[in-house]
Fold this sequence. Notes:
Blueprint: E1 3-7, H1 13-21, H2 30-46, E2 50-54, E3 71-75, H3 79-83, E4 97-101, E5 115-116, E6 130-135
Parallel strand pairs: 1-2
Antiparallel strand pairs: 3-4, 3-6, 4-5
Amino acid sequence: MADLDVGMSDPRIIEIVGAALGRTSDYETPKHQNEHALELMGILRLRGYEVVAQKNPWNPIETAKKNGIPILAKIHDDLFPRVRPDRADLKLWNGRVIEVAHPGILSDGLDVGWGMVAPVGHGGFPDDWFAGWMAVPLSTEA
């Protein structure tokens, strides 16, 4: 049988693998998407396909520390319309990678969200806007 090279980080993973099997499914979180993708890829393996999974370089946003240290965060490719169907103005943010930091949860339990690491005063990004995060690479400036 043919090889099927499907990247686990491909946002179309469910559609690609599901179409190969004639199955589709809705998912509530990236974790559900990943679990379903693994299930579908297992079925493909049973059917004789060689499936090559690629590691997603982005960590789940839930694992990022909320302690003021900057991170790189990738906004969902489909922030609008999937995550925030009521906010067409957010379409320009789809798929962006931005440097953000979270000051931590306030003493009253309020989560003020992630803020851009820039002198622009833009913040309040909730966790569910982000597809993932990674550490900020070290600067190479002299």
